[in-house]
Amino acid sequence: MEPMTASHADTDARADLMSYLDFHVEAGVDAALDERAHDRFAEAEAAALAPAPRAEPAPPREPLPREPLPREPLPQRDPAPGEDAPLEFRRELPSRDPPPREPPRTYGNAAGAKPGEAADDARARAAQMTTLAELEALLRGFEGCGLRFTAKNLVFADGNPQARVMFVGEAPGADEDRIGKPFMGRSGQLLDRMMAAIGLDRSSAYISNVVPWRPPGNRNPTPQEISICRPFVERQIELADPDILVCLGAPATQTLTGTKDGILKARGRFYPYRLGDGREIRALATLHPAYLLRQPVQKRLAWRDFRMLKAALDGSAAGR
Ligand code: URA
Question: Which atom of ligand 1 lies closest to the CA of 288?
C-alpha cells in the first residue's frame, strides 16, 4: 500500500473542508457574516438582563485545526434549494463553533440603535408617510434594521395596491431577494395557483411580507428584526387599505393578529385588524405555501381557508 504523504493529508483535509462548506451551502447558509457563529437570542437575553459589559481585548485567535474534519453523511435537507420554510418548520443547525468571545451586542441593527429605539423610530417615520411610494422610499433609506446590509434588494410589494385583498408572508427568500419582489420562488408559484383557484391573480391582489429584507441564509427573522419592521408593514396595510388581509403562516399571523396560537390552531379564522384611523378590517390566518410544499396533504385545510376568503370577498363586493 502506498505510504501516506504530506500532500495526501493536505488533499484529504481540503476535501473535508470542501464537504463541510458544501454542507452549509446545502443547508441554505450562503453568506458569511462573521468568522464565528452568533446566538442572537442568547445575546438579546443577556443584554436584557445586564448592562452591556465593557469590551475586553479579544484573546488571540486559535490556529485552524490541522486534523481533518470528521466526515459525516449530509443530513436530509428539508426546504428545497432557495425555498423558505415558515418559522415553526425550520431547524436550527447545531453550531460547531465555540461561543462568541466578544461582549454581547445590545442591539440588533447595524445603525447602533437599540431594538426598542429603532422600532419607535420606524413607527414615527412610517406614520409620516402618506403614500406607498413614500413608504417604499423611506424603507430604501432606512438603516435601522441590520438585514438591509446583507440583503441584495428591498422586497417591498408586488401586485395591485388597489386590490381588495392583501397577502402578507414572512420574509423574502433568495429568489425574492434577487428579483426584488415577494413570492417569486416555488412558494410564490404555489401562492399564484391558490389565488387562481378563487379567481385572483397579481392584478387583483396585493402581496407583501412582514420583513422586507431577506434574512441571510434564509434564517428566521429575529423577534427584534420583526419588531423593527412591523411598523412599516402596518403602515403599508393602512395605505393599501384592503378589505381583507390574509396572513400566510405563523409569523405573519402572530405579528399582525397578536395571537400566540400555532398556525394549525390559528388558521381558518378571521381576526379583527384595526387600522391607524380606528377602522377595523378582517385578517384571515392560513397556512404558508412553503409549508404546503412540504406537507401537501394540508392543502385541503388551505383550500377551506381560501373558500372562506372567496366567500368574504363575494360578500363584501359592494363595499369597493
Ligand atoms: N416566503 C415568504 O414568506 N415571502 C416571500 O416573499 C417568499 C417566500
Answer: 3
Ligand 1 atom with the shortest distance to the CA of 169? 3
Domains of the chain: 107-319 (3.40.470.10)
Q: Are strands 158-159 and 244-248 parallel, antiparallel or unpaired?
A: unpaired
User: Is 171 a pocket residue for ligand 1 (Cβ < 6 Å)?
Assistant: yes
Estimate the share of the chain in helix, then strand, then coil, as percent rounded to the nearest 5. 45, 10, 45
Distance set, CA 205 to CA 199, 251, 307 (Å): 10, 20, 16
Q: Is the CB of 238 under 6 A from ligand 1?
A: no
Give me ligand 1 centre to Cα 172, in Å.
4
Q: What order of strands is seen across the sheet that includes strand 244-248?
A: 158-159, 206-209, 165-169, 244-248, 280-286, 270-274
Q: How far is the CA of 39 from the centre of ligand 1 (A)?
A: 24
Q: 261 falls in which pLDDT band (50, 70, 90)? A: very high
| Nearest one of 317, 52, 84 to 184, comparing CA atoms | 84
Does the C-beta of 209 come closer than 6 Å to ligand 1? yes
For residue 190, give the nearest of 79, 78, 291, 289 by alpha carbon. 289
Whether the predicted pLDDT of 30 surpasses 80? no
d(CA 309, CA 250): 18
13-17, 26-30, 182-186: the lowest-pLDDT one: 26-30
**Amino acid identity, residue 113?**
A
